[in-house]
Amino acid sequence: MEKFKKRAVFEHLEEMLEFVRSYLIKKEADKSIIPDIILSVEELLVNVISYAFPEKDNGDVEIKCSFKNGSVILTFIDGGIEFDVTAAANPDTTQPMHERKIGGMGIYLVRNVVDEMIYERRAGKNILTIKKKIK
Amino acid sequence: MSVSFERNEEKVIFTFDGRMDTIKCMAAEKDVIENIKDEDKVVFDLKAVDYIASSFLRLCGRASNTVQPGAFTIINVTPPVKKVFKIAGLADRLNIK
Questions:
Q1: Mean of pLDDT over chain B
Q2: Which end of chain A is less packed: N or C, by CB atoms within 10 Å?
Q3: Residue B58: its chain A contacts at CB < 8 A?
Q4: Residue A106 forms contact with B (CB below 8 Å)
């Protein structure tokens, strides 16, 4: 398993994406799959950066990467407010854009490109795991 | 620069470049919206774009809602970008050519 921890701010976003990208390349992920995973990671991190710490300075977010049975498993851990991404309602994709909820579209994209998404709240932390077959 | 634009008598064309991720979209949004308010026709040219995040979908939505119905067009969409529009259910709702 590889881990990476950084303060959850936009200034660190590209560095965090690069960490995941490097891991996927190291595990010889199918090149056509990598953009889907990077999109998912970006959307989830942007959510943490934007909404997890509404009343105080942004804390850290940790990313753990592992690989099992042809799938990459990515876990995101933050100490922000409780937010179960997996329970968020899907946007109504038949609605015009301006009537859609802000933020809902990113999670919807993630849900549609990953194979599995699991949320836990433990010891005051949001723990979100996504899995995606990469070979 | 991730976006450049040129204006002629009948339309304004924005040409985006590379990865339109969250940070680039945040930087481009104000410029784009301010420059389309009084335009009759607005075109987003995505021929050099190979990645978009949901923030780009939102930018398209804002642009589409700022101008008259039918006045906003997206052209030269590459396959990986079209895939994201499709998942979002926007491939048929925005004027993509």
A1: 90
A2: N
A3: 97, 102, 105
A4: yes
Query: What dihedral do alpha carbons A125, A42, B23, B8 form, nearest 10°?
Result: -150
Which residues in chain A have Cβ-Cβ distances shorter than 8 Å to B26?
A: 10
ipTM of this complex prediction, to 2 decimal places: 0.89
Write the pLDDT tens digit of every residue in A72-95: 999 999 999 999 999 988 877 777
Nearest chain A Cα distance for residue B7, angstroms = 26
Q: Is A9 on the interface with B (CB under 8 A)?
A: no
> A40-69 burial, b if ≥16 CB within 10 A, otherwise e?
bbbbbbbbbbbebbeeeebeebbbbbbbee
Q: What's the pTM?
A: 0.92
